[in-house]
Write a structure and sequence with these properties.
The protein is an alpha+beta fold. It contains two helices and five strands. The longest helix is centred in the middle third of the chain and has 14 residues.
Length: about 120
């Protein structure tokens, strides 16, 4: 038996730039400190990580956000949601976390700006 939860994390590009210098704070999307912490949390508990999907976009245009996704067996959805919300985001209102637990009919969007 398994219990799979789908996760989509959308990180607005402004998170990747220093507000004072307007220079990137990291070269690779996965190196953003909050994303690294989230992947470390997942790796420690499930031996899995989110995958950055933005580089897979082949439309000829740059995606205006970094998109990460994963499907995780036996993910503690509440603990994961709390952990993602507790990360230090520059603009939490611009971060979108969508989770679809196995028996849910649709993804649920977490409002990151209220916590």
């Amino acid at each position: 038996m398994s219990w799979v939860s789908g996760v989509i994390l959308i990180v607005e590009l402004g998170e990747y730039y220093d507000d004072e210098t307007d220079k990137p704070i990291c070269e690779v999307p996965d190196d953003l400190p909050a994303v690294k912490e989230i992947n470390q949390w997942l790796d420690e508990r499930l031996n899995e990580k989110l995958t950055c999907l933005s580089s897979l976009m082949k439309s000829g245009k740059v995606m205006p956000a970094e998109v990460f996704a994963g499907a995780f067996n036996y993910l503690n959805v509440n603990a994961f949601d709390d952990f993602v919300r507790s990360r230090k985001w520059k603009r939490p209102e611009n971060i979108q976390l969508l989770i679809k637990d196995q028996e849910e009919e649709r993804f649920i969007l977490t409002d990151m700006s209220d916590g």
